[in-house]
């Protein structure tokens, strides 16, 4: 599903910040991406999200070398990938329900086609009672669950998460990763970047450890 072969990335004329990345992610798997601050986790997620192109090597997603794809094909592929950003990126002028429904609205779906799915998903992530609230009134954990719901409403094949537990207490962190694990059980491939190593010990998923731009452990 995801194949990297000797991938390198540099920003502008700067040094290579990702080097010699060669790995495969099988469909339906769950990987933690970890490593110290500045090791390149966010940059690697951007390559996976197709918002950055590698400066060398080959990235294959869904069996296709992404370097040969035109803008339309990249956008089509991008629809199969969901992302949860650390800073939520919810729109304050929309309700929680409207934020989660937004990706479907943008695709032109009528509300009658998605209302029941959005409501069901919000109930599943524990926001059934909060769906009419605006994000400013949600707690950090509620915002994060809304961001997760928005990322998965379009049923992406791959879900990327950048430090999704960055702003919440350890108990809630554990519950959020458990939520990702439940999504994974339903078939979504997940790559979750975090530097919270103790949290990972609660789960047996393989870890990719980035150090100075290279993967040093992938088990
Ligand atoms: N747009 C950019 N232009 C130039 N250099 C960048 C850019 N974005 C990131 N970098 C550099 O690339 C390196 C990797 O950064 P990246 O954000 O990918 O690491 P990270 O592991 O996600 O860090 P953190 O855990 O602190 O978020 C760092 O040295 C950073 O300064």
TrEMBL record:
Gene3D superfamilies recorded: P-loop containing nucleotide triphosphate hydrolases (3.40.50.300)
GO BP term (any one): cell division
Topology term for the membrane: Peripheral membrane protein
Superkingdom of this protein's organism: Bacteria
Record-annotated ABC transporter domain positions: 2-217
Keywords of this entry: ATP-binding, Cell cycle, Cell division, Cell membrane, Membrane, Nucleotide-binding, Transport
A cellular component annotation (GO) from this entry: plasma membrane
Protein name according to UniProt: Cell division ATP-binding protein FtsE
Gene: ftsE
């Amino acid at each position: 599903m995801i194949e990297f072969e000797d991938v390198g990335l540099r920003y502008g004329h700067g040094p290579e910040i990702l080097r010699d990345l060669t790995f495969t992610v099988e469909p339906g798997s769950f990987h933690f991406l970890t490593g110290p601050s500045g090791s390149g986790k966010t940059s690697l997620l951007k390559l996976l999200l197709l918002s950055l192109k590698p400066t060398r090597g080959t990235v294959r997603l869904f069996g296709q070398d992404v370097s040969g794809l035109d803008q339309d094909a990249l956008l089509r592929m991008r629809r199969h990938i969901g992302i949860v950003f650390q800073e939520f990126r919810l729109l304050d002028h929309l309700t929680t329900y409207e934020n989660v429904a937004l990706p479907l609205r943008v695709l032109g779906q009528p509300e009658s086609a998605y209302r029941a799915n959005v409501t069901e998903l919000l109930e599943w992530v524990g926001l059934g009672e909060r769906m009419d609230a605006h994000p400013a009134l949600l707690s950090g954990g509620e915002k994060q669950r809304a961001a997760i719901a928005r990322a998965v409403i379009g049923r992406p094949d791959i879900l990327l998460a950048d430090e999704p537990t960055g702003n919440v207490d350890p108990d809630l962190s554990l519950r959020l990763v458990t939520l990702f694990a439940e999504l994974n059980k339903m078939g979504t491939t997940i790559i979750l970047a975090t530097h919270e190593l103790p949290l990972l010990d609660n789960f047996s998923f393989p870890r990719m450890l980035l150090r100075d731009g290279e993967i040093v452990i992938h088990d």
